[in-house]
Amino acid sequence: MQPSDRADFARALADVMAYYGRDCSPFMLEIFWKGLAGHEFEDVSRALTLHARDPDHGQFAPKLADITRLLEGTTNTQGARAWSKVERAVKSVGKYRSVVFDDPLIHVVITEMGGWTNLCAINVEDLPFKARDFERRYSAYRLRREVPSFPPHLIGEHEAENRLNAARLGGLEWSCKPVLIGDVERAQRVLARGSEQPALRFTDSAKAAAGVLAALTGGTKREA
């Protein structure tokens, strides 16, 4: 939702709460607004109406989790949907092209699992095992509402070879036009907002210890 949607959203939420005989406090409005801001207002408004018609949960006033579940599904269904998108890309695009998904969390999980080319290289019979691993990791991030640092795109074999050749020949120019998977605008945002820096840092323990010692001693060595 956009800031311009806030007034309409406040009225819609107040109307729903009034249906349940409850007031919509400023605190409640803020919680719902922040939690649902990533969705379109029309979708949120529809979800508020659907909650009232839900035979399992509709007898109670909606909580943020209720509306989120209607908009996004459970974390398990989100993981399954994400894997379905990945599996189609594996089969249709393959390991040679670099790719950009419209969901940065897909980049995070695939990177954790060894990268795009490794995922594409597995045997067909191993896909169900990879699916379970992917969905477990993805669902865990969704449950925590967490999106760590993610790469702007997932590197295919052609780009990997181009990078290697550029390093060998000293600054050779190379270009990469990754395939956009899913919603084009969202994929472009992922590409623009990603970071080439790895999510995990690897530091030599001896160097780290020396740095700590230098900081504690003011950078000077003690004389015997």
What class, by secondary structure content?
mainly alpha
Low-confidence stretches: 220-224
Gyration radius (Cα, Å) is 24 Å
Number of helices: 11
Secondary-structure element sequence?
HHHHHEHHHHEHH
Proportion of residues in extended strands: under 5%
Name the average pLDDT.
85
The end-to-end distance, rounded to whole angstroms, is: 66 Å
Helix content: 55-70%
Order of strands, main sheet, comes to 1-2
Shape: elongated
Largest sheet: 2 strands, parallel
Number of strands: 2
Query: What's the oligomerization state?
Result: single chain
Task: Describe the protein in words.
The chain is mainly alpha-helical and about 220 residues long. The chain contains eleven helices and two strands. The protein has a two-stranded parallel ribbon. Helix 1 (about 5-20) runs parallel beside helix 3 and helix 3 (about 40-55) crosses helix 4. The chain is elongated. The N and C termini lie far apart (about 65 Å). The model is unreliable at about 220-224 (pLDDT under 50).
